[in-house]
């Protein structure tokens, strides 16, 4: 609220939590999904935009593999590269005034 008062035209990007743990039904993954729903609910699509970019890290079965995150917590160079490639178009749209 304070930020909106000081900078009423500012665009805010809220990023969803990234996947942790290997399996989609792991406790931290379920908790992150709940938080990501809350983050999505904060977005108004105009001044506050949300994006979930962690999907690029999951395989077709929803698993976070060791090839991108050896300890299923920290990402390696390839994992961060995938995140950057997924984030770039989101930032481009946001900076251009799109959603």
Which percent range describes the beta-strand content? 5-15%
Query: Can you give the mean pLDDT?
Result: 93
Main pleated-sheet profile:
2 strands, parallel
State the total count of DSSP E strands. Answer: 2
Q: Give the strand order, joined by hyphens, for the main sheet.
A: 1-2
What is the overall number of helices?
Answer: 3
- How helix-rich are the residues, as a percent range? 40-55%
Alpha carbon gap, first and last residue:
21 Å
Structural class: mainly alpha
Q: Give the topology string: H per helix, E per strand.
A: HEHEH
Shape: globular
Low-confidence stretches: none
Radius of gyration computed on alpha carbons:
15 Å
Characterization of the model:
The protein has a two-stranded parallel ribbon with strand order 1-2. It contains 3 helices and 2 strands; from the N terminus they run αβαβα. It is mainly α. The longest helix has 20 residues, at 77-96. The relative contact order is 0.18. The chain starts with a helix and ends with a helix.
């Amino acid at each position: 609220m304070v930020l909106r008062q000081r900078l009423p035209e500012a665009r805010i990007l809220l990023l969803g939590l990234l996947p942790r743990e290997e399996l989609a039904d792991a406790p931290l993954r379920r908790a992150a999904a709940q938080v990501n729903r809350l983050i999505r609910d904060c977005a108004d699509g105009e001044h506050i935009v949300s994006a979930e970019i962690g999907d690029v890290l999951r395989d077709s079965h929803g698993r976070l593999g060791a090839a991108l995150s050896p300890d299923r917590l920290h990402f390696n160079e390839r994992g961060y590269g995938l995140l950057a490639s997924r984030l770039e178009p989101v930032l481009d749209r946001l900076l251009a005034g799109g959603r």
